[in-house]
Specification:
The complex is a heterodimer of chains A (427) and B (318). Chain A is of the alpha/beta class. Chain A is 29% helix and 23% strand. Chain B is an alpha/beta fold. In chain B, the strands form two sheets. A five-stranded parallel β-sheet of chain B has the order 7-6-5-8-9. The chains are: A alpha/beta (427), B alpha/beta (318). Chains A and B meet through helix 6 of A and helix 4 of B.
């Protein structure tokens, strides 16, 4: 079947294309795109009425509860949330139960993804066995079985010797080590960013240097090993500065952040709002601005949802007892577009952080871009439509969003994976 | 009402912290409390302001003195007081704070007095129940009735709060008493200093209006009030301070350190004291200057005042 999306504002960061035109897909692939693409005879026509049509988003940091914590999220529910958020491919962290530290774990995810058949699922392999931080996992075997990168997910690889060896050992396999950069002893017991707000709320703080100390150490180890490194959810001005410098020195380093870190601050915790309890914690307004500036100048390559579903039972608790994390899949695109509306960076650059850049980091060279013969993974969206986020309407099983009631601009209209429509906005 | 004290409007449903109270609110509590001090010194200490009201003491953390103080306060006002302690409650069976709150709420208490080990617990509870909630200490956040009783103690002795200089000494980091006192005293126009080792002073405390000192001599220089805080023994084993001996040497309240303060400076301590660790016995027992037992007496009066103000008179009765 041939389908033509006409009258679309086509945006492809990889080829710097931003023009009104047509994308023609046949079956699972793109057969023509651009301002001059012709609609073949017999094609079904979808008139986009000037809406934006771009490569589907690639979300490189998603926590899913399957296997082990299915009450929080399953591969099926996360896939529906992803589709609603314009995400056509995502990579899940290995912090499941059991941890994905062997080939069987990866195969389980692949099988469930095939059964669910919604968005494309990829998985990280654990960097260390059981994500316990003591011994290297079977990195070579994991890479061979399709692990996109290695990480201990929400746990920091704290042991400097082990980190050094992980970076060195993983290098020939061409996969990065993805770090949760937080010095564990400095963060121990901490609930929120250290400072006045922590003191007022009577909560133990985590200083910003818990991030920068670990990053500085890791970057020095990258220099030593010439390994490939990716810093996840960067949240501090100091962290952004360290990464900027490392890139200037030519280290093989990439980084991501998530919408809470460029839209919210520790003030949004208010009176112990546990939905705003994140790891790393929400920081100061100076940090928030520095993170946005890091996205703008490319120091931060990618924007991820950092989706971390938590059921109500884990959030309706006193702050220190509540679990950290926010559900982010459903809202990744509209929240990221805030950067465009706030004139932090142009639309095409914002999309690059959500498509081409994360795909490149994960080595998914076919995804996150438009190409004739490439997969028809697309998102159609209205960049300006104003609406208010309602967490109850999330497709994710968990509704733990610090953005409930938040006004945004931009809405996903349709999500297409391999030529199939997996999400269609209710009209 | 016959001997009802001068009653000002108290525009709050709960008492969750000093934060959010105005100087007028604090004065209202202290004025009402003053009248209860007199009532408590009479042979017949009972009145009937809270007749028919149910007050639940919900203590997730042990505290004999605070619980007893609230219990006496409720009973002297004629209310029905029930003590719920952790050991006998369902908390041990895995019930969450909110479940416990909802269960209690179904019994229609008028006041819930909550002590909990986590900051923000009283606030969380207040969003789930119909009763007035009094925070009797939540984690390292606030302990508002302690600050109010300290203020009453000072005001009765010094005649005012405004313009006084108060030094709060010791483990500021883990102290809800310190936070509530800083907020209350600065609201009332007193100057507040915090004195302690840098490891026990939380970052950003100066934004709450306190000036920070790291030695007793300069910290106590010329102050009108010396407020000592309790330092828990487990925090003196090398993680925060090296040893009790070293702590006493640099941050204990000795007669020598006290000599730096104003000649008529008063000494306060929320109790229970670690004699020889944060306070020298000689100083603690100085009847002329130590307010430690006055604080206990004022505690009952202040808690009666808070209960009174949070329970408007039942109208249409009699």
């Amino acid at each position: 079947m041939t389908l033509a999306f006409t009258n679309a504002r086509i945006l492809d960061p990889a080829s710097n294309l931003d023009a009104v035109g047509t994308i023609v897909i046949h079956g699972e692939t793109i057969v023509a795109f651009g301002p001059d693409a012709r609609v073949p005879d017999g094609a079904d026509i979808i008139d986009c009425n000037g809406a934006c049509l771009a490569p589907g988003l690639v979300d490189l940091r998603v926590t899913i509860g399957e296997p082990g914590f299915e009450e929080k999220e399953t591969i099926a529910s996360a896939s529906r949330a992803a589709a609603a958020g314009g995400v056509t491919a995502m990579a899940m962290l290995p912090n499941t139960d059991p941890v994905i530290d062997d080939v069987a774990g990866l195969e389980f995810v692949a099988r469930r993804a095939r059964e669910v058949k919604q968005v494309k699922m990829f998985a990280y392999g654990a960097a260390t066995r059981d994500c316990a931080g003591n011994e290297l996992a079977d990195l070579g075997l994991l890479a061979e079985a399709g692990a996109v990168a290695f990480t201990d997910g929400s746990r920091c690889i704290a042991d400097a010797q082990l980190m050094r060896r992980a970076l060195a050992y993983a290098r020939p396999f061409g996969r990065p080590i993805v770090q949760h950069p937080e010095e564990p002893r400095l963060a121990e017991g901490g609930q929120v960013n250290e400072g006045e707000i922590a003191t007022r709320l009577g909560l133990a703080g985590i200083p910003a240097c818990a991030e920068s100390i670990l990053l500085a150490r890791d970057l020095r180890l990258v220099e030593l090993t010439r390994g490939r490194y990716h810093a996840a959810h960067v949240s501090t001005a100091e962290g952004v500065a360290l990464l900027r410098d490392a890139k200037r020195r030519g280290l093989d380093v990439t980084a991501d952040t998530a919408p809470p870190y460029f839209l919210l601050t520790e003030r949004d915790i208010g009176d112990w709002r546990t939905f705003a309890k994140l790891s790393p914690p929400l920081r100061s307004d100076e940090d928030r601005k520095a993170v946005a500036a890091g996205i703008a100048d490319g120091t931060i390559d990618a924007i991820a949802s950092d989706h971390q579903p938590q059921s109500q039972d884990w959030k309706r608790l006193p702050f220190a007892q509540a679990a950290p994390g926010a559900a982010g899949l459903d809202t990744l695109l509209p929240l990221s577009l805030a950067l465009v509306h706030d004139k932090v960076l142009p639309l095409l650059e914002a999309l690059r952080r959500l498509t081409q850049a994360p795909a490149d980091i994960l080595g998914l060279k076919e995804l996150g871009r438009l190409a004739v013969g490439g997969p028809a993974d697309l998102v159609l969206f209205d960049p300006d439509l104003r609406w208010t986020i309602d967490a109850d309407s999330f497709h994710s099983k968990s509704k733990n969003s610090p953005f409930d009631g938040y006004a945004v601009r931009g809405r996903v209209l349709r999500t297409i994976v391999d030529g199939r429509t997996v999400f269609h906005a209710p009209t | 009402m016959n001997d009802a004290p001068l009653r000002r409007a108290f525009p709050h449903r709960h008492l969750l912290g000093i934060e959010g109270l105005s100087a007028a609110d604090v004065t209202a509590v202290l004025d009402v409390a003053d009248s209860y001090v007199e009532q408590n010194r009479r042979a017949d200490k009972r009145s009937a302001h809270l007749r028919g009201r149910t007050i639940v003491n919900l203590f997730f953390e042990d505290s004999t003195r605070t619980r007893t103080s609230f219990e006496l306060a409720g009973k002297r006002l004629g209310g029905d007081v029930i003590n719920m302690s952790v050991a006998t409650s369902s908390v041990k069976k895995g019930e969450t704070l909110i479940d416990t709150a909802m269960t209690l709420n179904a019994m229609h208490p008028d006041v819930l007095i909550v002590r909990h080990q986590e900051s923000g617990a009283a606030m969380l509870l207040s969003t789930k129940v119909d009763a007035a909630v009094i925070n009797a200490g939540d984690g390292t956040h606030e302990h508002p009735t302690q600050a109010l009783l300290d203020a009453l103690t000072i005001r009765r002795r010094k005649g005012r709060l405004e313009g006084l200089t108060v030094a709060i000494c010791g483990d500021i980091l883990h102290s809800r008493v310190a936070r509530s006192n800083i907020l209350l005293l600065t609201t009332m126009g007193a100057k507040v200093r915090v004195v302690g080792p840098p490891t026990l002073v939380p970052s950003g405390i100066e934004k709450l209006g306190a000036s920070v000192f790291h030695d007793m001599r300069s910290g106590l220089d010329g102050v009108d009030i010396v407020m000592m805080l309790r330092l828990q023994v487990e925090r003196m084993s090398g993680r925060f301070v090296p040893s009790p001996r070293e702590y006493f040497r640099f941050f204990g309240l000795t007669r020598e350190a006290l000599a730096m303060a104003s000649p008529d400076a008063l000494i306060m301590h929320p109790g229970p004291m670690n004699r020889g660790v944060e306070i020298d016995s000689e100083v603690a027992d100085d009847v002329g200057r130590s307010m430690i037992l006055d604080q206990v007496e004022m505690g009952v009066a202040v808690r009666m005042a808070v209960l009174d103000l949070l329970c408007p008179p039942i109208t249409g009765g009699n």
